[in-house]
Design brief:
Distance between the termini: 30 Å
Shape: globular
Number of helices: 16
CATH superfamily: MFS general substrate transporter like domains
Number of domains: 1
Largest sheet: none
Oligomer: single chain
CATH topology: Growth Hormone, Chain: A
Strand content: under 5%
Length: 422
């Protein structure tokens, strides 16, 4: 009886070590990628305004970014399924480096649009690739159970990376408003190098096909992804909820740095510190999800309440405009709600998707989110021009509330054990 137990214990030890290795690699790639993108957080709309762009032009540049993602996210997700997550991620980092360097040098609206298109395509090559690789690698290593805690830790690491680089970017912007772009470009080069070292591809995560067959394979996977996405009620409703959330938060994100910078009037650096404070709220929300483990069937109720709470706080921040300290406090509370929402929704969505279709269906839901974001930017830009930012935030709060019925409609689906978990 001793020998089988000993053999089993060796196998279990090896499996546990493999899971730890994959988890560390997953965390490291996510953190480095977050550091690269965070240099622009907070100062992005201020940079465009300093280059002479109007508010409509600023919003349209970001809207182009979302439209590019809408048009290319599913094809590039299918491409990642065909050629591998690591190759897709590295290609995306290279394209984002080119986009950031272009931003660093140009001063005209038309060239900003070109840079945004390049960056948008690069983003779609990266989006979903890290998560798809991480989940597939963990499954291959023998990871079992719900991944709420894992996604909460990823969100926390991502936000820490954003905080560090956003604060550095804000201080750099006080010296030269374009320097954060150069630092971000360097960060994406480092991200590509780290991915090449740590993202070990698994054959089960992708198909091995000839180069000449890739276009046909991509087209087939795109059609399959669209058909499966629209044919699965849970995936579709979670994607619709994502779209409503992005419609609200994308426009708000373009407005708060300008409002805070103008109200405090002490320099761009204040935006970096406020960003850190808001991110702490996001981390608190993620930590609550990581520590509490209520029944999976309560997900619809929890997510619906979090949506209602975050929308109410955004509307209250609009009512408190003119008192920046009050606005910052309300926005920090709102970020606690959104910090708890994201890992819950991400984990729930990933549990509905099988390994061989993960990148395609993640791109399907990302397409909904980015399409909602582009629409929210247009609505938010028009509303801000005619009604002002405070009233706009109340309108955006109403849009965010539309996500609650999507979550609530999935009450019966939450009680069913997902096939991937089984």
């Amino acid at each position: 009886m001793v020998r089988p137990v000993t053999v089993l214990s060796f196998a279990e030890t090896a499996r546990a070590e493999n899971i730890r290795r994959v988890t560390r690699s997953y965390y490291a790639v996510s953190l480095v990628y977050a550091l690269a993108g965070g240099f622009l957080f907070g100062v992005y709309p201020l940079f465009l305004r300093s280059r002479g762009l109007t508010q409509l032009q600023i919003n349209s540049v970001m809207a182009v970014y979302f439209v590019v993602i809408f048009l290319t996210d599913i094809p590039t997700g299918a491409f990642a399924d065909a050629i591998g997550r690591r190759n897709s991620f590295v290609a995306g980092c290279i394209m984002r480096t080119i986009g950031f360097v272009t931003y660093f040098f140009v001063h005209s609206y038309g060239l900003f649009l070109v840079a945004e298109i390049i960056d948008g395509i690069g983003t779609t090559f990266c989006s979903g690739a890290i998560d798809a690789w991480g989940v597939d690698a963990l499954d291959a290593a023998g990871y079992a159970g719900v991944k709420d805690r894992l996604f909460s830790r990823i969100l926390q690491l991502t936000n820490v990376g954003w905080m560090v680089s956003a604060l550095a970017g804000a201080y750099l912007a006080d010296v030269n408003i374009s320097w954060p772009w150069l630092m971000g470009a360097v960060g994406y080069i480092v991200s590509a190098a780290v991915a090449l070292m740590l993202m070990k591809e698994h054959r089960s995560a992708r198909s091995t096909i000839a180069a000449a067959q890739i276009p046909l394979q991509v087209a087939r996977r795109v059609m399959t992804g669209m058909r499966q996405g629209f044919g699965r009620r849970t995936v579709l409703l979670l994607s619709l909820a994502n779209a409503m959330s992005f419609a609200a938060w994308s426009s708000y994100w373009m407005q708060w740095p300008q409002l805070i910078s103008d109200d405090y009037g002490v320099g761009v650096w204040i935006v970096g510190w406020i960003f850190c404070l808001l991110t702490v709220g996001q981390l608190i929300g993620a930590e609550v999800v990581a520590r509490l483990r209520p029944a999976e069937s309560s997900r619809p109720l929890r997510l619906s309440l979090l949506v209602i709470g975050s929308a109410a706080l955004l509307a209250a921040a609009g009512l408190g405009a003119g008192r920046p300290n009050v606005v910052v406090a309300l926005l920090a509370l709102m970020r606690i709600c959104t910090g708890a929402m994201q890992p819950l929704a991400n984990s729930w969505l990933n549990e509905q998707i099988q390994a061989d279709e993960r990148a395609t269906l993640l791109s399907f839901t990302n397409t909904f989110a980015t399409f909602g974001g582009s629409g929210g930017l247009i609505v938010g830009g028009i509303a801000a021009d005619y009604l002002g930012i405070p009233i706009t935030w109340m309108i955006l709060a109403g849009i965010a509330l539309l996500a609650a019925p999507c979550f609530w409609a999935l009450r019966t689906a939450a009680a069913v054990v997902p096939a991937s978990s089984a």
